[in-house]
Write a structure and sequence with these properties.
globular, 44% strand, two-stranded antiparallel sheet, single chain, alpha+beta
Amino acid sequence: MKLKFKQQEFQNEAVKSVTNLFKKNQTDDVITAACFRSHQSKIESFQTKAKSVFRDYYCNKLQAKFSKAVPL
């Protein structure tokens, strides 16, 4: 099985674009990583829409940063 790796940084208003990216790449052989700097509520909204698992994250009241997101 070949694994494809994509990495990109998304900021603030990009939740919709990121969700579309994950929807397009939902195959068993694709791993997608992303770095997020956004308000926590927007990250939580993306997490729900994309049904993703986040790892290696830092989070406080105003912003959240995720270094990796892997679609299920």
